[in-house]
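Is this the right way to post structure tokens for a design question? Let me know if I should format differently. Anyway, here goes:
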């Protein structure tokens, strides 16, 4: 049914929930999972980086929090390099989790507008399905931040499975 599944991730708890669904689907279908991280070069609000820990899934923090903790004050391309480095660690950690479940992966880190990069990657890699988290933002947050998942759902030429983190789950 599915040979190539795209799993775009930002390392959030919602992404973990989507990863679990992706593992199940890929195992069932024998599919290869394409793990994608997009360093958002267009929106300062979403410039988040992974706090480094053993699993690579400890959560996202704003770069200014890293700067306060580390004394680093990189901006512009330095910040994008930092985001790409964090994304590289994130997709590698995700690939390790998939490997633990005998799921083959391809990893990629790209720069750009996240929803556009996801759509472009899906077309370039000829994926059959995209699995994404939905964060359940409402009201002004959704208006201001937009929804990458919503834009992908509306624009993708392939099916998009959205996975919502359940309220009260231990990952929230």
């Amino acid at each position: 049914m599915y040979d190539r599944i795209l799993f775009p991730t930002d390392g959030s708890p919602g992404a973990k929930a989507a990863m679990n669904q992706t593992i199940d689907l890929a195992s069932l279908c024998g599919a290869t999972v394409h793990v994608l991280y997009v360093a958002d070069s267009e929106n300062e609000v979403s410039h988040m980086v992974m706090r480094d820990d053993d699993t690579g899934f400890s959560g996202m923090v704003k770069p200014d929090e890293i700067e306060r903790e580390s004394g680093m004050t990189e901006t512009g391309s330095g910040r994008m390099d930092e985001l790409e480095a964090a994304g590289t660690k994130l997709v590698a950690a995700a690939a390790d989790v998939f490997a633990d479940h005998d799921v083959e992966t391809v990893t990629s880190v790209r720069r750009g507008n996240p929803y556009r990069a996801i759509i472009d990657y899906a077309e370039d890699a000829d994926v059959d399905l995209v699995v994404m988290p939905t964060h359940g933002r409402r009201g002004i947050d959704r208006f201001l931040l937009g929804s990458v998942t919503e834009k992908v759902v509306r624009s993708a030429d392939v099916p998009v499975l959205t996975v919502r983190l359940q309220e009260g789950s231990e990952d929230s």
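Format looks fine. Someone answered above. Worth noting: The helical segments are 13-29, 63-70, 77-100, 114-124, 139-145, 148-155. Residues 77-100 form the longest helix (24 residues).
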